[in-house]
Amino acid sequence: MRAAIFNGPGDITVGERPNPVIQDPTDAIVRVTLACVCGSDLWYYRGESKHEPGAIGHEFIGIVEAVGSAVTTLAEGDFVVAPFLYSDGTCELCLAGWPAHCLSGGGWGNATGGGQGERVRVPLADGTLLKVPGTGHSDDVLRSLLALSDVMCTGYHAAVSGGVREGSTVAVVGDGAVGLSAVLAAKRLGAERIIALSRNPARQDVAREFGATDIIAERGDAAVEAVKGLTSGLGVEAALECVGTGESLDTAFKIARSGGMVGAVGVPHDSVVPIETVIFRNVGLRGGVAPARKYIPELLGDVLDGSINPGLVFDFETDLEHTPEAYAAMDERRAIKSLIRVGAA
Amino acid sequence: MRAAIFNGPGDITVGERPNPVIQDPTDAIVRVTLACVCGSDLWYYRGESKHEPGAIGHEFIGIVEAVGSAVTTLAEGDFVVAPFLYSDGTCELCLAGWPAHCLSGGGWGNATGGGQGERVRVPLADGTLLKVPGTGHSDDVLRSLLALSDVMCTGYHAAVSGGVREGSTVAVVGDGAVGLSAVLAAKRLGAERIIALSRNPARQDVAREFGATDIIAERGDAAVEAVKGLTSGLGVEAALECVGTGESLDTAFKIARSGGMVGAVGVPHDSVVPIETVIFRNVGLRGGVAPARKYIPELLGDVLDGSINPGLVFDFETDLEHTPEAYAAMDERRAIKSLIRVGAA
After folding, report:
1. Which domains does chain A have, with CATH numbers?
2. Which phi and psi angles does A182 have, rounded to 5°?
3. Nearest to B289 among A264, A279, A291 (CB)
4. Helix, strand, coil share of chain A (percent; to 5)
5. Closest to B279 (Cβ–Cβ): which among A98, A232, A287?
6. How far apart are CA B184 and CA B178, in angstroms?
7. pLDDT (tens digit, 0 to 9) for every residue of chain A, 345 residues total?
8. Is A92 at the interface with chain B, CB within 8 A?
């Protein structure tokens, strides 16, 4: 089959990889229809995080092509959303709502095929895949379903971790696809005030579309002052950190009001938690790898009825053969997030 | 009046200080009956944190001796518990449940008199002091009311911040008075399993009395293994950090299960938050200076009806003139916590 192949930093090609086959009775084979590039893929692409050479990509939706003998809830032809990690749905951590930490779980890679390829072997298919009801979904809906695979759930996790609820005052640090999704998530959770930090007009537009009530173009200490200026000098109840750098985490803690929360989902790079702010201002920190498999069922209905449209983060698209372009567009910040059309829906 | 005086590290004396008087119409003057020494006072005593020379002590109960003209809820003769900070009860942060961050609040010191002295001027008295109903309380009840001034509320804050609830599996790092109070708090909040880390037999006894179901005498990595051994290898849902050292915070994060929380109330000294554990295992961090004024009303009834007895942390007592002994006993770990009898009840 055709698939994107990670050869090393800055070097993505598209070539032949073995077609995955059922190995365990709990496996399913999914033929990928849409995939995309994650901000975390960029860390690999830029050589800032390690990635094994070979299969790459962990966000995809597609059609079940085959199921193992122990799979009971899925059948050939089902249209499914795959979360970015697989999980059994039955272990103590899954049952506690933490499928990303499933005791039998794992991620996509050379052993399964990557999401940026024609087919993926999905272990623990019953616990992992979400069957999408209905048929004939519009392309807009399909794009939004793809966003549930990771980016929307990750933004949602920032907001949930930050304790966003009805009436909350929120700020989002980071105007990448995750940050924009966090804006949408905060809106869905009932936030009254949503301050987006962005200096990019296209991203500001998406932020507004997603529910941002205020946009701040400043950075660093000027951004902190601007957020305080909008919040009676107190800062926000929930500061959502969606970047992962030391500076962004620092900003998030500074704009959080005493007693507030930092909801953090950025993969940390040189990030230092200001423990004095935690203790002396009671600013909590929570977040991390999103429990996508938990959130997808909560969000699926909202996507299908059009009440949320997380697929708006995709502003670049290409086909599987041009996957390197999809990376380059994001790397050069020409795109918020790149969608890859892999196969027929 | 007589009062303890901080002259510098290792140097506490008892001497004369000016009798406090009403300065603002919202003030009250409280004649202290019982006071005590806080673990944080020890940081000053040991020279590990700065303290202004002069008045010291922030935990006390007593009798209202005078009130300013604007005080409406208190009168001369009222028996009150004072939280370790004063607060107005009306600002946005107080109303949000964070009186320790009151926009008009502050702490006890030279401007007010310290808790380890015969009298204290209490600013914002209506918002700060809690009137205790009834009369003729037993000495046990009085000791437990004194514990509400700080230590019990701080332990309670660790447990609340750690998300302890009915059925939780909890571990408490630290067997000082705050750690023991955190055990009692976890029990009150319905924790099913409470693992106390302590190698001191007297403190183990109090921990058991307060509701600890398991005691672990190991430290460092051996303690981590022991906690995992008691929790199916997963660790605890809530790890309560009640020490404030780098090692104790490290232990707390290691014994927390994925998706769990560290509830931290120790004043940080060289503490580094393992951000990778936060993000890759979804272990949250919350806690800090306790909102005692919020918790005291919740806990007061339980103290008065005897269903909690936080005063058991006091295992040394003396009078005001012997306050230096109270410090020495804690400094030398002869005492968990020292009570000071200041004046007649």
Report:
1. 2-150+291-341 (3.90.180.10), 155-286 (3.40.50.720)
2. -65, -35
3. A279
4. 35, 25, 40
5. A287
6. 10
7. 999 999 999 999 999 999 999 999 999 999 999 999 999 999 999 999 999 999 999 999 999 999 999 999 999 999 999 999 999 999 999 999 999 999 999 999 999 999 999 999 999 999 999 999 999 999 999 999 999 999 999 999 999 999 999 999 999 999 999 999 999 999 999 999 999 999 999 999 999 999 999 999 999 999 999 999 999 999 999 999 999 999 999 999 999 999 999 999 998 988 999 999 999 999 999 999 999 999 999 999 999 999 999 999 999 999 999 999 999 999 999 999 999 999 998
8. yes
Q: Could you tell me if A289 and B280 are in contact, meaning their C-beta atoms sit under 8 angstroms apart?
A: yes
For residue B282, list chain A residues with Cβ-Cβ distance below 8 A: 98, 100-101, 286-289, 291
B-interface mutation test, from A49, A249, A253, A279, most B Cβ less than 10 A away: A279
Residue in the block written with tokens 């769990």? B260
Q: Do B257 and A93 touch (CB under 8 A)?
A: yes
CA gap A335, A163 in Å, rounded: 30
Place of tokens 């940050």: A179
What is the Cα–Cα distance from B237 to B257, expressed in whole angstroms?
6
Q: Which of A234, A275, A286 is nearest residue B284 as measured by Cβ atoms? A: A286
Determine contact: A267 vs chain B, CB below 8 A: yes
pTM above 0.90, yes or no: yes
Distance from CA of B209 to the nearest CA of A (A): 29
CA angle A199, A205, A207 (to 5 degrees): 80
Residue A189, Cβ neighbours under 10 Å: how many?
18
Q: Which residues of B touch A259 (CB under 8 A)?
A: 93, 96-98, 101, 291
CB contact under 8 A, A289 and B282: yes
Could you tell me the strand order of the sheet in which B193-197 lies? A214-216, A193-197, A169-173, A236-241, A256-264, A284-286, B284-286, B256-264, B236-241, B169-173, B193-197, B214-216
Residue B154 three-state SS: helix
ipTM of the complex: 0.96
